[in-house]
Amino acid sequence: MQTDAESDPRLQRDIDADIGFIHGGSVRKDIPAGDVRVVDLLATYPFVDDVTIKEMSGDQVRRALEQSLTFERGLLQFSGLKLTYDLQRPEWQRIVSLSHKGEPVMADDQFTIAAPGFLTEGGDLYDSFPESAVIGNIGKVSDIAIRYFGEQEVVRVPERGRQLDVTPALD
What confidence tens digit (pLDDT) does each residue in 39-83 have? Predict the structure, then answer.
């Protein structure tokens, strides 16, 4: 849900991100069912971090996701993409398909991404994020989450299937 908030155009201060990212290790608690309090949102991502905006190529996005699929630092969470992967493939070759708005992501495609500064600065060893310059800042992660929930009467659970594991079952 945090990546949906990051890429929500209503919250972006005139910057329209195509993709939102968050590093899996930063999500410390599930958001409870039912009424959500501010303290629940703050406990989910208990860090003071800005969401920064960058331009990234399809190649940079793909490399970040391939790194994520090594599970060295946890699985990246994202919005704006659909990823199919096979864990029986060698590391750095596990992506079966990657698409944005139904179109395959090509190496030279350009995307505007929103992600916490920790990640865009190369935290958790994600080295493709710092290859491009910051072009904007849309505020603190916690403030964005609070605004996202506050501006909607009902916040729906995001659509499942953004990441699809097609690894064949072992017999």
Answer: 776 677 666 789 899 999 999 999 999 999 999 888 898 989 999
Write down all domains in the chain, each with its CATH number in brackets.
2-80+107-156 (3.90.780.10)
- The residues near 34 (Cβ < 8 Å, ≥ 6 apart) are none
Is residue 18 within 8 Å of 110, Cβ to Cβ? no
DSSP-derived pairing of the beta strands 163-165 and 82-85:
parallel
CB of 79 closer than 8 Å to CB of 20: yes
Q: Token match 């505007």: residue?
A: 112
Distance of alpha carbon 17 from alpha carbon 113, whole angstroms: 5
Count CA atoms within 13 Å of residue 128 on its CB side.
17
